[in-house]
Amino acid sequence: MSAIPDTRAAEVADKLALLRETLDATGAGAIRLRCLDWFSWVTAGGDASVMLAADLGAAEVLVTRDEAVIMTDEIEGERLRREQVPDGFTFHIAPWAEVELRETYVLGAAGGGAILTDRPNHVDQPLPASLRLRRMVLNAAEQERYRALGREAAQAVGEVLREARPDWTEFQLVAAAARALWSRGIQPALVLAAGERRLPLFAHPAPTHERLGGRATLVVCARRHGLYANLTRSASFGPAPREQDELLQVEATGLDAIKPGNSLAAVYHALDAAYRHANRPDAIRAHHQGGITGYQAREIVASPSTATGLEPGMAFAFNPGFAGIKIEDTFLLGPHGLENLTLDPQWPAREVQGRPRPLWLEITT
Description:
Helices cover 32% and strands 25% of the residues. It is built from 9 helices and 19 strands.
């Protein structure tokens, strides 16, 4: 019996039912979920990660019409049973040095039928696109986990930037951010930072030993229960850049396009038009603009031809920007529009088209 409280059991049951519907619809023998994102989804927030920079974790999930099995080894089995996996699963635990036993078990469980997987190869088949789309529509329990994550991630980022000083290095800034996230039980899946000189140069500013100088931007993808809260915040040790007002209007146009029935492409085209209106027609080519988020930092990135339809229950992280300035939060599309999951009431903000949007924090040293 799992030591995890059974409050997640109903969510697990619903997700296993969905996977078995997929088995019936496709005639496959089994579904094999190998990556961290699918593990967290099907276990209602369980975490199989050991190495953060890996897609595969310490366990996989195999679902047939009769069983839902956590496949792992003797190193990880008891820890996962006690701390990560709720009721609804059995375990297949093999010696770590005998990996072939897992493969034999999978073939036997599939009973000669096809195996659908998130990591297809020359034998196994990919998961249906409809299943991945269904994963992106988050249920009520997932949304509550997301709200808590977003709130705490935003608090952590705000806390760190308020403490930052011009003589900090970019490495010091990301180290402080990682510490603030870990202290809240949040994995720093990505932490980027740039100071004044490097901000205009690179869309993805991997940190260096360079000092911040007059400005600093912190970009975070924060993961907990498999979900990602994505946000960007900036601070200046002096006046904020004048371009932030222009960027807020560009972003507002894109956010207004996130409506049920629209496509991701519609959001992209709205942003493209807003950049052109701002006389910055090339800005959209400098970096992707974001898209649907959830169990990956970007489940799908918006492009001119991304036909994916937008539905209530989906989460979004768009990150429009000009050279040296960017804005980003994680939003949930609900029955009354967009809900900002990474809103920090303590951070300076301005209402733009009915939404409080973060400004640059001006720090006096």
